[in-house]
Specification:
Number of helices of chain A: 9
Number of strands of chain B: 0
Distance between the termini of chain A: 29 Å
Shape of chain B: globular
Structural class of chain A: alpha/beta
Largest sheet of chain A: 6 strands, mixed
Distance between the termini of chain B: 42 Å
Strand content of chain B: under 5%
Largest sheet of chain B: none
Oligomer: heterodimer
Number of helices of chain B: 12
Largest interface: A-B, 30 and 26 residues
Helix content of chain B: over 70%
Order of helices and strands of chain A: EEEHEEEHHHHEHEHEEHH
Strand order of the largest sheet of chain A: 6-7-8-3-9-10
Order of helices and strands of chain B: HHHHHHHHHHHH
Number of strands of chain A: 10
Structural class of chain B: mainly alpha
Radius of gyration of chain B: 18 Å
Chain lengths: 251, 265
């Protein structure tokens, strides 16, 4: 297995397996994510991408060891270090009475105790996050009134408002048009290159992952490939995987 | 013209009504947005079984109503989470089961000359001074709890998964919400009764949602609709000699219809 860039490991998965009932969806995965990585996760639908993401976020408990920032996930408390952007567009309720600013403010909630409301500092961070995604003029609009791409930018702002060190994105461009997708990826690139945020991006779109991510893992229930994104196509695992999963590469 | 306020029971009714009118939408907004409005109806019926138990044992029925509703609310939540039955089936089991229990218990308690009608449709005449203290204390408790857990409640209502990732103990917050719902619903029985309380929890919120405002603004509008309906409902019930619970709920329905038609696209 080729060594990934940077030396500080912030997310460590060791011998991870997971089953839904009797059906094994992940089998013995060992993956390290280093500070500053832009890791793409590729694999066919049903191959376990979303399950893996949920394990990284502590939403599912697998067999094996998960360590976040050098702590066992069971003892990890500092969840504001991790931002999460899901396939929001597909499950947001368009009549929910929540302003864009309200959504981004939620990014600060994890840092606040009971009875504590957002102070001036929190609001400044919320405004800054909205500016970063160029949505500040939409602050008072209802989230349901925005387009899919705009909503997704708001959800990225929410993740940024928590001042995370790592952002995990699960198919963030579902239901977003091609031009907006391009803007989103350009923005993610900037976060990774300029702000040195660690990114984990799951997608079924190989071309996007190859172009955007620096490291790539391919999973189909078990680990097919783990290494540099640019070297995936030349690797023997790609050829065998490509032959068996023709539909998954070209869709 | 203010002779109405010379009657202690009316003043007590209005005082209790204002508290109920204030807490109903505060809980209602979270239930409605989580598409869990039916829980209010279920807990009201469970609470009626508690009321019947109190009548049978000759304990203050308000206290047994609250106790039984609170304990059962946690059981409903467990049953729902177990996924062994569908969520709405879980509610249905508790709703019908507790209504059946209530009818049986009340028929056994018949010797104590129980007026079932008062508990089904509410009757401010039944509100005693001790109830007023009790309802005020618990009502303020519910308001404080919503303020304390406001951020967490908002987050799990909007996006439960992201809330969990942010480190919020979603299971605990869900349990708190359902206990608060049980308290609200059982406190409201003397005013609007078992069969109508769900309306007070749900309708002002649904009317306020039509205005398409932000979260806090929606709560404020729902509060105005609810408190106004309770106040006007109780006063008109006195002058028109109609049941207060029915008048209150009809007012919320009328306000909803006006807002709904006015906001039609």
């Amino acid at each position: 297995m080729p060594e990934l860039e940077n030396d500080k490991i912030i997310l460590e998965l060791k011998n991870i397996s997971f089953s839904y009932g009797d059906e094994k969806v992940l089998n013995d995965l060992t993956i390290d994510i280093h500070r500053g990585d832009y890791l793409g996760i590729i694999g066919p639908n049903g191959g376990g991408k979303s399950t893996l993401i949920k394990i990284m976020l502590g939403l599912l408990k697998p067999n094996g060891q998960v360590k976040l920032f050098d702590k066992d996930i069971a003892d990890f408390k500092d969840w504001s270090k991790i931002g999460y952007v899901s396939q929001q567009v597909t499950h947001i309720d368009s009549s929910f009475p929540m302003s864009v600013e309200g959504v981004v403010s939620m990014g600060r909630y994890g840092k606040k105790g009971l009875f504590h409301f957002l102070d001036a500092n929190d609001r400044a961070i919320v405004t800054r996050a909205l500016k970063q995604v160029e949505m500040e003029e939409y602050a008072d609009r209802l989230i349901g009134d925005l387009s899919g791409g705009q909503q997704q930018r708001v959800f990225i702002a929410r993740a940024l408002a928590g001042e995370p060190e790592m952002i995990i994105l699960d198919e963030p461009t579902t239901g977003v048009d091609a031009k907006t997708q391009e803007q989103l990826y350009a923005f993610l690139r900037k976060l990774n290159h300029e702000m040195h945020l660690t990114l984990v991006l799951a997608s079924h779109d190989l071309e996007t992952i190859e172009r955007e991510a620096s490291e790539l893992i391919c999973i189909n229930r078990s680990l097919v490939y783990c290494g540099m994104a640019k070297e995936f196509r030349a690797h023997e695992s790609f050829a065998s995987f490509y032959q068996n999963n023709d539909k998954f590469v070209h869709h | 013209m203010f002779e109405i306020f010379h009657y202690n029971f009316i003043v007590r009714g209005i005082e209790v009504g204002m508290i109920i009118g204030a807490i109903a939408p505060l809980i209602g907004i979270f239930l409605v947005l989580r598409k869990y409005a039916l829980i209010a109806d279920t807990l009201a019926h469970v609470s009626l079984a508690g009321v019947a138990l109190g009548l049978l044992l000759q304990i203050n029925p308000l206290i047994t109503g609250i106790g039984v509703a609170t304990v059962s609310s946690v059981a409903v939540e467990r049953l729902r989470l177990s996924k062994r039955v569908y969520a709405d089936s879980a509610l249905s089991i508790f709703l019908s089961g507790s209504l059946a229990l209530a009818i049986v218990l009340i028929s056994i308690a018949k010797g104590f000359s129980v007026d079932l009608f008062n508990y089904l449709f509410g009757s401010i005449v039944t509100v005693r001074t001790i109830d007023l203290y009790f309802i005020s204390t618990l009502g303020i408790g519910v308001i404080l709890a919503v303020i304390a857990f406001y951020k967490e409640l908002v987050y799990i209502t909007f996006d439960e998964e992201a809330a969990q990732v942010a480190g919020i103990k979603t299971r605990r917050i869900n349990t708190i919400l359902i206990i608060l719902s049980a308290l609200t619903v059982s406190l409201a029985i003397p005013i609007v009764g078992t069969l109508l309380i769900a309306a007070l929890v749900v309708i002002p919120v649904v009317a306020a949602l039509q205005l398409r405002k932000g979260f806090l603004a929606t709560i404020v509008y729902a509060e105005i609709i609810s408190v106004l309906s309770v106040l006007v409902g109780i006063i008109s019930s006195y002058y028109l000699n109609i049941p207060a619970g029915g008048a209150i709920v009809l007012l919320t329905v009328i306000i909803f219809l006006i807002v709904f038609v006015a906001k039609r696209k």
